[in-house]
Design a protein that fits this description.
The chain has a 42-stranded mixed beta sheet that branches. Strands 43-44 form a two-stranded antiparallel ribbon. With 581 residues, it is mainly beta. The protein is built from 2 helices and 44 strands. Helix content is 3%, strand content 50%. The longest helix has 11 residues, at 7-17. It has a domain at 1-221. The protein is elongated and about 95 Å long.
C-alpha cells in the first residue's frame, strides 16, 4: 500500500477502486491506480495544507487518490486561497465541481518548488446549469501527464466555467484532447474561459474551443509552447451563434507563443470558425489576436471561416487572425469558404499582418464557393500594414460567383516570393495599393513574381518599389496605380505603361515594357509621358528584347533624365554621348 491505513480505510479504498474503470472510460479523468480512493476536500484540518490529513474526506493522505473540490469549504470571493499544495504530490484525477452564482470559489496554491502531478483534470463537468470559477496561484508547477486523457472545461448548457491559472508559475500538459466548452450536450448557450499560467507547455492531439452555442476564450501566458496536431477554434452547431477568442492575457510584457504539431517539428492543422450544422442565420465568429506579443507558428492546413456544411444552411462563419511580431507559416490555407447553397451560409476569413510580422504561405486560396450558392457576400481578405512582410508561392481565388471577394489590401510593407519558389498571384485577386505608404515587391535572385491581376489604388497616388535580384512581372495588363515606380534591384517587367515616373535608384535595376503597350512612331520611338530618373549612376541604355523594350543602366558616372513626350523619340543623354533611337 502507498500509506498506512486502518482496516476500514483499506476496505473503503478497495470499494472506491471498483469505480475507476468507468471514470477512465469517461475520458476527462484519465486513468488512475486501481487502489485510488475518490476523496474530496472538506477543509476541516484547521489549516489549508494538502498534507494535513484532516482536510480530506477520508482523513488520510491524498497521494494517488482521485480528488474532487466541490462547494464544501468554498468561499465567496474569487482568488481567495482555499487550499495549498505544500509538498510534491502525484494524484489520480483532479476535479473541480464548485458551482453556484458568484458564491462558491476555490483557489489552489502550489508553493514554490512544489509540483502537483495529475493524470485527470476536469472543471465543471456536471449537468447542472451553474457558474464555476477555479483559480491556481503560486510559484509551483501543475503537471498533467496522460497521453490518452481529456482535459475538460464545461459540459452542460448555460454553464459559465472559468479557470484562471494566471497566478501560477507553470503548467505542463500532455493529453489526447483539451476541450473548452466542446462536446457540450445541449443547444443552450454557455461560456468557457481558460487563462494559462506564466510558462506553459501543452502537447495534445487536439485543442478544441467552442461547440453548439458555447462561447469560449483561451488567454495565453508569458511563454507558451503549443504542440498540437489539431487546433480547432470556433465550432458552431446550432442556432444562436458562437464567439471564440484566443489572445495573450492582458498586462503581459512581450509575451510569446510557439505553435507546432504534436511532435514539435511540423505544422499544426488550424480550423478557425466553422458552421457544422444549420444555425438559423446566426454568426459563428472566431478570432486569434496575437498582437502585443511575438508568435512563431507553423501550420500545415489552415481553414478560416468555413460556412455551414450541408444543403440550404444559413449559418455564417467569420474568422480573423491578427499578429504584429514574429512569423506565421501556412503550407496551405483557405480563407472564407461557402459550403452551403445559400449565400447566408457563407464564410469569411481575414488575416491582418502589421508591425514587423511575417506571413509565409505555400498555397493560399481566398474566397471559395463550393456549395453552389449563386451569390456570396463574404470571402478571403489579407491586410498588410506597417513594416509587415507577406510571402507566398501561389495566391489564387477559389470558385467564384457574383459578390465573391478575394482581396489583398496593401497599405504598406513587403510582398514577395516564398524562398526558393516563384510567386504567382491569380487574375481574380483584387490587389489594391492603399495610401501613399511604402509598397515593396521583393523577389529573390533566380525567381519570378508574376502578378496576373491589375494593381489598383485608393487613398492617393500609390507607388511601388521593386527590390531583390529576381523578376517582378506585372502581367495584368491594366494596372492603374499612379505613383512612382522605384527600381532598386533586379528586373521589373510590365505590360502596362503607367502615368507615374519610373525611377532608377540602383545600377542593378532593369526595366522592361511590353511594346504592345506603346505607340511606335518610327524606329523604336515610344509614346507616353513617363520620366525615367537615373539616380544610380551610369548611363541609361535601351535595347529591344523580343516583345519588350528594355531599359537598364550601363555603369558609368552620369546624371541622366529620360523623358518621353507625346509621340517623342526615345532620347538618351550621357556625359560623353547623345544617342537617338
Amino acid at each position: 500500500m502507498k500509506k498506512n491505513l486502518t482496516m476500514a480505510q483499506i476496505l473503503k479504498v478497495r470499494a472506491w477502486s471498483l469505480r475507476i474503470p468507468a471514470i477512465a472510460v469517461a475520458g476527462a479523468l484519465g486513468t488512475a491506480s486501481v487502489w485510488a480512493a475518490d476523496i474530496s476536500w472538506d477543509g476541516s484540518g484547521g489549516d489549508d495544507f494538502w498534507s494535513t490529513v484532516g482536510n480530506w474526506s477520508d482523513n488520510a493522505d491524498p497521494a494517488g487518490d482521485n480528488i474532487t473540490f466541490n462547494n464544501t469549504a468554498a468561499v465567496g470571493t474569487a482568488g481567495t486561497v482555499t487550499n495549498i499544495v505544500d509538498q510534491n504530490y502525484n494524484v489520480g484525477s483532479l476535479v473541480y465541481e464548485n458551482f453556484g452564482v458568484d458564491t462558491n470559489y476555490h483557489t489552489t496554491q502550489i508553493n514554490s518548488g512544489v509540483t502537483l502531478n495529475v493524470t485527470g483534470l476536469a472543471f465543471n463537468t456536471t449537468t447542472e446549469l451553474d457558474t464555476s470559477q477555479t483559480d491556481f496561484t503560486g510559484d509551483g508547477a501543475l503537471v498533467y501527464n496522460n497521453g490518452a486523457g481529456i482535459i475538460q472545461l464545461g459540459r452542460a448548457a448555460k454553464q459559465t466555467t472559468t479557470v484562471d491559472m494566471s497566478g501560477l508559475s507553470s503548467f505542463t500538459a500532455t493529453a489526447d484532447q483539451i476541450l473548452l466548452g466542446a462536446n457540450v450536450d445541449s443547444s443552450n448557450s454557455g461560456i468557457t474561459t481558460l487563462t494559462l499560467a506564466g510558462t506553459n507547455v501543452i502537447t495534445a492531439n487536439r485543442l478544441q474551443a467552442g461547440g453548439i452555442r458555447q462561447d469560449s476564450a483561451l488567454y495565453l501566458g508569458q511563454s507558451n509552447t503549443l504542440n498540437i496536431d489539431e487546433l480547432w477554434l470556433g465550432e458552431g452547431e446550432r442556432s444562436g451563434g458562437t464567439t471564440i477568442n484566443m489572445a495573450f492575457d492582458s498586462g503581459l510584457i512581450d509575451p510569446n507563443v510557439t505553435i507546432r504539431d504534436k511532435a514539435g517539428t511540423g505544422g499544426a492543422d488550424l480550423l478557425l470558425a466553422w458552421g457544422k450544422f444549420p444555425s438559423d442565420g446566426f454568426l459563428h465568429t472566431a478570432t486569434i489576436d496575437l498582437r502585443g506579443g511575438s508568435v512563431d507558428a507553423q501550420f500545415d492546413t489552415v481553414q478560416m471561416g468555413m460556412g455551414r456544411q450541408g444543403i440550404n444552411g444559413n449559418g455564417k462563419s467569420f474568422a480573423t487572425f491578427y499578429f504584429d511580431a514574429g512569423s506565421v507559416h501556412m503550407n496551405t490555407a483557405v480563407l472564407g469558404r461557402t459550403n452551403s447553397s445559400s449565400k447566408f451560409g457563407a464564410g469569411q476569413g481575414n488575416i491582418y499582418i502589421s508591425g514587423t510580422g511575417t506571413l509565409t504561405v505555400g498555397l493560399l486560396t481566398l474566397g471559395d464557393n463550393i456549395g453552389g450558392a449563386d451569390t456570396v457576400e463574404e470571402g478571403g481578405f489579407i491586410y498588410l500594414t506597417d513594416s509587415a512582410i507577406f510571402r507566398a508561392t501561389t495566391i489564387q481565388a477559389g470558385a467564384t460567383v457574383a459578390g465573391s471577394n478575394h482581396e489583398i489590401n496593401f497599405t504598406s510593407g513587403t510582398i514577395g516570393n516564398l524562398s526558393g519558389t516563384d510567386l504567382t498571384i491569380g487574375s481574380d485577386i483584387k490587389l489594391e495599393l492603399i495610401g501613399t505608404g511604402s509598397h515593396v515587391f521583393d523577389v529573390e535572385a533566380g525567381q519570378v513574381a508574376t502578378i496576373n491581376t491589375d494593381i489598383t489604388q485608393s487613398g492617393g497616388d500609390a507607388g511601388l518599389t521593386k527590390t531583390g535580384d529576381g523578376t517582378l512581372y506585372l502581367a495584368g495588363g491594366d494596372d492603374t496605380y499612379s505613383g512612382d515606380t522605384l527600381l532598386l534591384d533586379g528586373l521589373f517587367r510590365t505590360d502596362t505603361f503607367l502615368t507615374g515616373d519610373y525611377i532608377f535608384e540602383s545600377i542593378m535595376a532593369t526595366f522592361q515594357v511590353n511594346e504592345a503597350a506603346l505607340t511606335v512612331g518610327g524606329a523604336q520611338a515610344l509614346f507616353g509621358t513617363q520620366i525615367f530618373n537615373n539616380t544610380g549612376g551610369g548611363t541609361l541604355e535601351a535595347v529591344d528584347v523580343g516583345d519588350y523594350t528594355q531599359i537598364s543602366i550601363v555603369p558609368e558616372p552620369s546624371s541622366v533624365a529620360l523623358i518621353f513626350g507625346l509621340f517623342a523619340s526615345l532620347t538618351l543623354l550621357g556625359r560623353r554621348q547623345r544617342r537617338r533611337l
